[in-house]
Design a protein that fits this description.
Layout lengths: L13 E2 L2 E2 L1 H13 L10 H9 L4 H10 L3 H11 L4 H14 L1 H10 L12 H18 L6
Antiparallel strand pairs: 1-2
Helix pairs in contact: 1-3
Protein name: DUF5069 domain-containing protein
Length: 145
Amino acid sequence: MDLQQQPPRRWNAEVAGMIWLPRLIDKVRAFQADTLGAYAYPSALDQSFMRHLRLTPALIESIVRVTDSDEVIGATLRQRIPLSDEEIRTRCAAFQEKYRWAFAVLDRDDGYVRGLGYPLPQFLQRPLWRWYQRWSAQKANATSV
């Protein structure tokens, strides 16, 4: 996956009954191929998703590294998540509700819907994004979440 050429899948795409997981898989693949472009991994939203489902970047990265199929990745993660199907649905719904405004911005920034993306003046977007990438890289890496 080359995120320099196209955005990751939309936040509401599902694999194994989990929203965000397809987007996360795309970002992990791009991270491993060094083609993240302007995207951050693990971003604050990635980390929140993982916390909601008791996952770690190290676990997801190791599975994605050796598996090409999204369905197999999802099934493998489901086996390792100590939650029932109902708990997973509830946690995904809570994640969706908590970040609904962020998802609206992502949809615009990624081009999935029309409209203004981040409500910041253009001259502030680039320095704030660079700061966020540095902060995110310092706060979390593949083994610290």
